[in-house]
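We treat protein structure as text, and this decision shapes the records that our systems exchange. Such a record has a labelled line for the sequence and another for the backbone structure tokens. The record that follows is passed on verbatim for readers who wish to inspect the format:
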Amino acid sequence: MIKKAVIPAAGLGTRFLPATKASPKEMLPIIDTPTIQYVVQEAVDSGIEDILIISGRGKRAIEDHFDRNFELEQRIKEKEDETYNEIMNLSSLANIYFIRQKEINGLGDAIMYARQHTGNEPFAVLLGDTIVDSVIPVTQQLMDIYEQYKSTVIAVEEVPRDKVSRYGIVGGEELSDKLMRLNQLIEKPAVETSPSNLAIAGRYILTPGIYKALEKTPKGKGNELQLTDALIELLKTESIYSKTFEGKRYDIGNKLDFIKTTIEFALKRKEFSSDVLAFMKEIIRDYEKAN
């Protein structure tokens, strides 16, 4: 059974400057909820209670977010604010630990910081800037596959064939409609040589063998230690499976997708949906008139 999760959240967030100069990109809110809170909640909803967040310089706000704030709690309690229970629950979602990645040397390097915490256990990895909306949490979907095969499992999603060069792509033997035993992992392949249109989607169950694989992996793109490269190394000694997950992934790593995600989540909330939809129709009508 998977008991621990690791959330890498040390990236600089340069695509969101100047907003991320003083605030972590993982704390950018989707309406009123920071992105990383959705990620932590997914881990908790999957039955994980022990979470290590890999942070970095300027990321103290993440730690503060999941800590107690007694003055704030007292004030909203006195006002009988309906957010009181939500604020109180933040500090008790899970056992959350933090470690700082001293230098930004890639996702693989960030995972190495979890070695002492996870020990000889398999563990989940959830990227801190990716939200997945699903009935069954994606991490739980991967955990179910792990329990069957006791091997590394990677979440993947179908992407347009002409866009495979933007992603890490997997290939292998199809075991079922949604499950594959991998024999290839290729970072940003050319369209004509891509083994599939299944892209790695920011959720993993990793075995402890990943650490030895990382030790053997040279630095790759950007002179950083890449997790995909380490998975290719791991594939030499262990089986790796991919699961085409059920749900919709929201990549908060760029501005356009952040805007789209905010709009979609607003439309899902009863207190906003009708007003937001009416506003969107008005904006579209005014835009069409002007053009």
In short: The radius of gyration is 20 Å. The domain at 4-253 is CATH 3.90.550.10 (Spore Coat Polysaccharide Biosynthesis Protein SpsA; Chain A).
